[in-house]
Each structure stands twice: as structure tokens, then as C-alpha cells.
Amino acid sequence: MISNHILKTTIAANSVVGRNYSLKVLGIETSCDDTAVAIVTEDRKVLSSERFTERAIQRQQGGINPSVCAQQHRQYIPILIEKCLKDAGVSPKELDAVAVTVTPGLVIALKEGISAAIRFAR
């Protein structure tokens, strides 16, 4: 969920700022039908990771319905974020960054992840 470029950038920022702890990042993935959230450290340690998908609805509808995916992302992102924070033993204020999928993917699904990331970061 977090690219090498972002990791290198955060590591560089960490050394410039002089932090003596590992940065923590909330990652949100909504490129298609799965809703995924994770909290990771800059040294790639996964503190918590959660995923939701609803295959039964997809089978009922004969495949992936982008509008249904977006609705599920809206519903489950906050739930998964809360679960990850609790499982990782981290408060929102202890997070240093939010990373979110921006491409490739279904535009309507990506929009939900991006909107959630912006709301959380505020």
C-alpha cells in the first residue's frame, strides 16, 4: 500500500527533522471492490491491517458494480480505520501521514478512498 518512493521520502524527512522514532502511516486502498486499511511504519512493519470485500453481492449482480463498491467503501472505511487504530494501539494524533491509492482503479471507488483520507487528515 505504500510505495518505495514514499518510504524513501519519509525516511529522508525523518532524518532531516531529527526524529528518533519510526514514522507511522495510515494507508487506504479502494481501487476496486476491496476496502483495505493498514497502519505501517516507515521501516515496513505492519502494525495493523484490515480488509473488507463482499463477494456475495458481486455474484448476485453478475460482477463488480462500481456504485455498490463506492457505497461499501463509504460504509467500511471508517470502521476499518477504527479497528486498525485499536489493533495497533495507536491514536490518530500518533500518525505522521496518510497514504491513499490514486490510480489505477475505478474512479468512483478511488474517490471514496481519497475523500476518506482527506477527511481523516483534517
Task: Describe the structure in your own words.
One of its GO terms (molecular function) is tRNA N(6)-L-threonylcarbamoyladenine synthase activity. Keywords: Acyltransferase, Metal-binding, Transferase, tRNA processing. With 122 residues, the protein is α+β, with helices and mostly antiparallel strands. The protein has a single domain, classed as 2-Layer Sandwich (Nucleotidyltransferase, domain 5), CATH 3.30.420.40. Strands 3-2-1-4 form a four-stranded mixed β-sheet, covered by helices on one side. Helix 3 packs parallel to helix 4. The longest helix is centred in the middle third of the chain and has 23 residues. It is elongated. The mean pLDDT is 89.
